[in-house]
Task: structure prediction
Amino acid sequence: GVTMAGMKRWEDAIKCFQKASGLTPANGEYLYNLAYAYHVQGMPELAEDSFLRLLTLDPTEPRAHWYLAEIYLSRGDKPKAVEHLEIVARNREGRNQLGPLAISRLNKLQ
Result:
């Protein structure tokens, strides 16, 4: 799936990620890749569902919160977007490189 995504073959990547996440539903990285592929392909409902499922595995996953905020902003749902951006901004773990971007986005929204 990652190879297909790297080649911008998103439909093939989605098929791979669907299979991988179905075989190993507790693997958050597979679910993230599937959600991101849906997002890139302009499938916000499927992306939202997958990102929300990812958050059931890892409620602090900053990438899921970041992209959910993007989805909600595109729908004009600023309160939901702010909620997810605030989670990204508060999460200061080493893997969260989105924290500063979330703070900047929050400042622009308020």
